[in-house]
């Protein structure tokens, strides 16, 4: 996770900050989830002897997919469900009638697929998401992914005069790059991260969303008196906390603080803005404003408790509307806000929010039918498939459009409003896709999780996390990335 500063990704003269600004101006939205386990990938990239022969390139088959070769697609079975992908698979099979796609969905991406990567027999297309997401930085560093540039340069599914890359929301291509022009990941969704709440519950307290931390504490105290906790979060997966904590750090100290953290710079975590934000979150614990038992809850349990009115606020991504649809009351009036700041001395204004591409799709380097995997993505990036996704899962896609005729749900509408309010003040931390193990296991579980459970003070948590970052920076077996 890193802020929206320019990165040297082959976009001369156009940095990520500019691209994300334009994304925000368009009012984009939707999801990801990251990994608790890092991938122990072996070096790869070589050809498998079982690769499908290339097919003939035609106007209807611009990628030259072998029209008789099988294709395997493994989806993360998470907040977006699997129906949208199954619908896109049917289109693939209709276009290639001699082909039967082997489609499956699982929550255990890493434990299911890492052995297949190591054996050189991975699927052709993977939605690499969830708590068991494979470490993207490791996969890129070990040459285990296919460059998706041929897909991006292919004619779009709807308009042969437009390349796929020209139909995508600003910033999506750049997010898939790591250290050059090649694009390793296609983020299919667009996520707004922040603090989610029930507007109805906030109205019942006769309060507005708090902009300063003193106001936040006052709202939590009022909620506590009415028998409602101020906050809950995914205690078993405390790397959900950064969804609101990281943009708060950026708001308080400026984008450069998040860049320094991403860049693994010495003492980056010791910046006064980090201390101020850690102290603020710890105060929620100290004052008893966190729902009792939260450290033992997983993401579903914490979201359910929140939806039931047991807690007012929860840090999350825009997938929460769909993931919790069965427990959110109809009159809940779901809303999201950019994180509360400390006070008027913050470097960035209230409204500073984290938004970025999510739900990362990859095509392995040793896929038997890489062209088929990319063609499936080309289909998913059509207007019809994008509209199908948005209408079914309450999120936008990387496709720049596909919302005509769709009534926006409360969460989606609130997310668009939050992005409009943010304007240029959109940050995009990169830790979660550059250093998955560091972000999930170390910063999340061993640092923030321990602090919010009361087992570490903010000072102890910062010292511990800085140590983890320093270890990663010195580890020569890990490929390192930097904002340019």
UniProtKB/TrEMBL annotation:
InterPro entries recorded: Bact_solute-bd_prot1, Chitin_NgcE, SBP, TAT_signal
Record flagged with keyword Transport: yes
Compartment(s) where it occurs, according to its Swiss-Prot or TrEMBL record: Cell envelope
UniProt KW keywords: Signal, Transport
Source taxon at top rank: Bacteria
Cross-referenced Pfam families: SBP_bac_1
Keyword Signal: yes
Region (Disordered): 42-62
Similarity-based family: Belongs to the bacterial solute-binding protein 1 family.
Protein name: N-acetylglucosamine/diacetylchitobiose ABC transporter substrate-binding protein
Annotated gene: ngcE
């Amino acid at each position: 996770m890193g802020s929206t500063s320019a990165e040297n990704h082959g976009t001369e003269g156009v940095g990520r900050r500019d691209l994300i600004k334009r994304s925000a101006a368009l009012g984009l939205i939707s999801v990801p989830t990251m990994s608790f386990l890092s991938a122990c990938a072996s070096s790869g990239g070589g050809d498998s002897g079982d690769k499908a022969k290339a097919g003939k390139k035609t106007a209807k088959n611009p990628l030259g997919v072998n029209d008789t070769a099988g294709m395997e697609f493994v989806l993360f079975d998470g907040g977006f469900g699997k129906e949208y992908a199954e619908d896109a698979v049917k289109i693939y099979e209709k276009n290639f009638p001699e082909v039967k796609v082997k489609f499956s969905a699982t929550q255990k991406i890493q434990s299911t697929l890492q052995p297949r990567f190591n054996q050189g027999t991975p699927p052709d297309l993977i939605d690499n998401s969830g708590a068991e997401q494979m470490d993207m930085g490791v996969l890129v560093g070990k040459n285990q992914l296919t460059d998706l540039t041929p897909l991006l340069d292919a004619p779009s599914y709807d308009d042969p005069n437009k390349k796929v890359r020209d139909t995508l929301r600003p910033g999506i291509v750049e997010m898939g790059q790591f250290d050059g022009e090649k694009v390793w990941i296609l983020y299919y969704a667009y996520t707004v991260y922040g603090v989610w709440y029930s507007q109805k519950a906030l109205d019942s307290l006769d309060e507005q969303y708090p902009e300063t931390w003193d106001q936040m504490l006052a709202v939590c105290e009022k909620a506590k008196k009415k028998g409602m906790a101020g906050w809950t979060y995914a205690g078993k997966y405390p790397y959900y906390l950064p969804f609101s904590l990281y943009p708060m750090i950026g708001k308080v100290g400026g984008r450069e603080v998040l860049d320094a953290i991403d860049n693994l710079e010495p003492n980056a975590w010791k910046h006064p803005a980090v201390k101020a934000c850690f102290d603020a979150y710890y105060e929620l614990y100290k004052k008893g404003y966190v729902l009792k038992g939260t450290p033992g809850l997983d993401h579903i349990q914490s979201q359910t408790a929140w939806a039931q009115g047991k807690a007012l606020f929860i840090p999350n991504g825009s997938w929460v509307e769909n993931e919790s649809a069965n427990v959110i009351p109809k009159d809940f009036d779901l809303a999201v806000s950019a994180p509360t700041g400390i006070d008027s001395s913050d470097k960035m204004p209230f409204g500073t929010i984290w938004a970025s591409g999510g739900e990362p799709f990859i095509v392995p380097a040793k896929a038997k039918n890489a062209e088929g995997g990319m063609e499936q993505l080309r289909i998913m990036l059509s207007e019809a498939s994008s509209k199908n996704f948005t209408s079914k899962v309450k999120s936008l896609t990387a496709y720049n459009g596909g919302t005509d005729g769709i009534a926006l749900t409360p969460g989606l509408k609130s997310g668009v409003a939050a992005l409009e309010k943010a304007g240029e003040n959109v940050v995009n931390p990169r830790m979660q896709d550059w250093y998955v193990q560091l972000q999930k296991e170390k910063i999340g579980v061993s640092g923030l999780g321990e602090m919010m459970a009361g087992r570490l003070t903010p000072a102890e948590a910062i010292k511990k996390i800085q140590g983890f970052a320093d270890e990663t920076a010195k580890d020569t077996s890990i490929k390192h990335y930097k904002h340019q």
